[in-house]
């Protein structure tokens, strides 16, 4: 039972040594007392401390732990008001740091720890620094191990007992033995004296308090029985937890073994470095924006080496989920920050990570946020103190030109990277200017054309399907157009009033909900009733539908997506499913899997949630019932359809083109009506030209374009029609 029987190194480094197997386990198995002072108290730190202690407990040994509560500025102010406040604030801080276990392994560890505390095997005391400068946090990290022959091993260094320290950060400890010469013995005794002084509360400027009773009770909630279960220290258990499934860990953010960076990605990152790590990656959907962005993170970390905060922001929760998998493959452990985060108490985790970075306890931290979460006051307050050492990486960065989000483009952040295939904001020059002022120059422009030519995306065939208004719809369209014209053309500054905006939205919904679109979709789909991997984009609008009750026709207002679902499902007997914001993340994953398999789902019917970031590469045919005049929308939609998939050689895109008047009747309408209708046709033609330019069958669209231009006498786009 002697430490002298163990081979003990002078130094242990987390990526060269297995800290648990090489250091803690062999020494704790021979120890009678383990004394540890750590930086911050948390349940995750307790879990890590519990690794390898079975031998100590079986020896009848004990553990003494000193830790500091994580105090905010408000907490410090409250403590300074008096003793009663101190106890309450510290107890609240500790209770917040006792987090719900995330898996069965953590549940069993917390059960063990609670039983060790109950049996007085584990004693915990809380340290707070008090000096002339005010209240501070105790942040020393050292440990002492005693065997039954009165030998002592002391260690100190950057290691915190946490999963991050053991598995992800480059940490090291220096080790001293009481039997190895006078110099080492003196070092050991100095640490012993220091620990004893703190434990017994006579260390100057450090106040020690017992572990709060309320915190003991909260910890005891995780007791499943009164039995101390030491079976957790089987090697396969703690090795699995420590390595977290990784075979070999590198220091901090690092390239995965499977990843091979492409020349255009390398060129983009090099330009970003030249621009002092500020810039824009303008890359088409499907060309590896995410991996290029994470590769840039690795290069920045290699440059900074220590003290890097990484903030990654995405528009939606489902995009965060997609990013997390890639982030972790680059050896980065992110704090997942949004209302439905799988990480409980994510705000506390984020606060801990920022504090650890600020105090030098970790070399980097990473938080991934939705737009809404990142722009919240709570998050901005938490990350404020580490912004001066941060990288802000924004996916689908065009969104940050909006008024609220643009306020989060903090000049204090030194490193910036915008990812977007469409950074220019349609109809919002001020928002676009904000983005370019903040993210500066484009480091790469990798277009859809480049991606198709370089075999990053599949080639496609483009099929325009011309539809028209019914007479009642045409009258409504013309009436709205007259009202809009009066409001806008009467304004010399050409500014669009709120009233005009509402009318424009109403007119756009009318176009999206034209009844002929669904009829035309059903006709086109009859040729593909037995096929699968089909996507239908609907408008976020309602339309009139005929239903029958008691054998009588009844006209009802229904959502376009519901009408499409009914007609494809009932009329054509196809297996269809909705893919909208109403389906939660778990349901969407099931839908994606079933769609990929092609057995239980032939077609997905979507609205807008597929526009940004959702990856369903198996889509082979897309039917677009509604498109706005915003190029961002239809460029993104096209990119979704062109993603590569095994066995997918090309894609087909059916685009429902609006001609307000049936083509064979345009000549029968007076000139003013044709002219009012022509403005919509011109916008449709612009999209058709864009789609046709890269299509394999551009002549099919060209014929329709020429016919529309001839019928509507279109030769140019004047200023007034631009505003319409």
UniProtKB/TrEMBL annotation:
TM region positions: none
Location of the Helicase ATP-binding domain: 270-441
GO MF annotations in UniProt: helicase activity
Keywords: ATP-binding, Helicase, Hydrolase, Nucleotide-binding
Record-given protein name: DEAD/DEAH box helicase family protein
Annotated source species: Eubacterium segne
Keyword check for Transcription: no
Coiled-coil segments on the chain, per record: none
Domain Helicase C-terminal: 521-681
ATP-binding as UniProt keyword: yes
């Amino acid at each position: 039972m002697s430490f002298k029987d163990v081979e003990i190194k002078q130094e242990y480094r987390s990526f060269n040594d297995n800290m648990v197997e090489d250091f803690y386990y062999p020494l704790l198995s021979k120890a009678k007392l383990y004394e540890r002072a750590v930086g911050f108290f948390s349940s995750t730190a307790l879990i890590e401390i519990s690794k390898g202690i079975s031998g100590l407990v079986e020896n009848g040994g004990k553990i003494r732990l000193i830790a500091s509560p994580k105090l905010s500025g408000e907490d410090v102010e409250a403590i300074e008001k008096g003793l009663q406040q101190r106890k309450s604030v510290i107890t609240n801080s500790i209770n917040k740091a006792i987090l719900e276990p995330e898996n069965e392994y953590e549940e069993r560890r917390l059960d063990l720890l609670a039983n060790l505390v109950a049996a007085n095997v584990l004693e915990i005391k809380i340290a707070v620094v008090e000096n002339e400068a005010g209240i501070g946090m105790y942040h020393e990290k050292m440990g002492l191990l005693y065997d039954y022959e009165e030998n002592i091993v002391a260690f100190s260094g950057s290691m915190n007992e946490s999963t991050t320290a053991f598995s992800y950060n480059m940490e090291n400890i220096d080790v001293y033995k009481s039997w190895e010469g006078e110099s080492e013995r003196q070092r050991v005794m100095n640490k012993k004296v220091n620990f004893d002084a703190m434990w017994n509360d006579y260390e100057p400027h450090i106040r020690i308090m017992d572990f709060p009773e309320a915190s003991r009770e909260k910890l005891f909630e995780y007791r499943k029985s009164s039995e101390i279960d030491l079976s957790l220290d089987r090697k396969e258990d703690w090795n699995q937890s420590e390595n977290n499934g990784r075979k070999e860990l590198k220091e901090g953010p690092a390239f995965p073994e499977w990843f091979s960076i492409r020349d255009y990605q390398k060129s983009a990152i090099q330009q970003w470095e030249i621009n002092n790590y500020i810039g824009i990656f303008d890359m088409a959907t499907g060309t590896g924006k995410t991996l290029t962005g994470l590769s840039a993170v690795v290069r920045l970390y290699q440059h900074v080496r220590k003290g890097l905060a990484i903030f990654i922001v995405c528009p939606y929760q489902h995009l965060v989920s997609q990013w997390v998998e890639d982030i972790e493959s680059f050896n980065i452990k992110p704090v997942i920050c949004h209302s439905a985060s799988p990480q409980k108490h994510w705000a506390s985790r984020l606060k801990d990570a920022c504090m650890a970075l600020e105090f030098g306890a970790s070399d980097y931290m990473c938080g991934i946020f939705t737009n809404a979460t990142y722009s919240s006051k709570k998050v901005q307050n938490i990350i404020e103190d580490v912004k001066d050492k941060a990288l802000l990486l924004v996916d689908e960065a065009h969104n940050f030109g909006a008024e609220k989000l643009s306020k989060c483009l903090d000049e204090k952040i030194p490193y910036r990277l915008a990812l977007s295939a469409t950074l220019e904001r349609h109809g919002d020059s001020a928002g676009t200017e904000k983005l370019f002022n903040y993210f500066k120059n484009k480091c790469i422009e990798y277009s859809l054309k480049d991606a198709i030519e370089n075999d990053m995306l599949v080639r496609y065939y483009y099929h325009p399907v011309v539809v028209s208004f019914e007479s009642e719809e045409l009258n409504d369209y013309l009436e709205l157009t007259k009202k809009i014209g009066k409001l806008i053309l009467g304004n010399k500054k050409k500014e669009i009033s709120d009233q005009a905006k509402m009318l424009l939205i109403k007119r756009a919904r009318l176009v999206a909900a034209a009844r002929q679109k669904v009829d035309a979709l059903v006709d086109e789909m009859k040729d593909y009733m037995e096929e699968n991997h089909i996507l239908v984009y609907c408008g976020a609008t309602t339309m009139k539908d005929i239903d029958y009750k008691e054998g009588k026709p009844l006209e009802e207002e229904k959502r376009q997506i519901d009408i499409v679902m009914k007609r494809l499902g009932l009329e054509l007997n196809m297996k269809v499913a909705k893919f909208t914001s109403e389906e939660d993340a778990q349901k969407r994953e099931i839908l994606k899997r079933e769609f990929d398999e092609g057995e239980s789902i032939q077609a997905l019917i979507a609205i807008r949630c597929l526009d940004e970031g959702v990856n369903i590469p198996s889509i082979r045919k897309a039917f677009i019932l509604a498109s706005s005049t915003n190029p961002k929308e239809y460029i993104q939609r096209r990119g979704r359809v062109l993603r590569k998939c095994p066995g997918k050689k090309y894609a087909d895109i059916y685009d429902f083109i609006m001609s307000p008047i049936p083509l064979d009747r345009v000549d029968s309408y007076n000139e003013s009506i044709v002219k009012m209708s022509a403005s919509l046709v011109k916008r449709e033609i612009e999209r058709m030209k864009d789609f046709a330019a890269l299509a394999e069958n551009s002549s099919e669209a060209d014929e329709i374009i020429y016919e529309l231009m001839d019928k509507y006498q279109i030769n140019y786009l004047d200023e007034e029609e631009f505003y319409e």
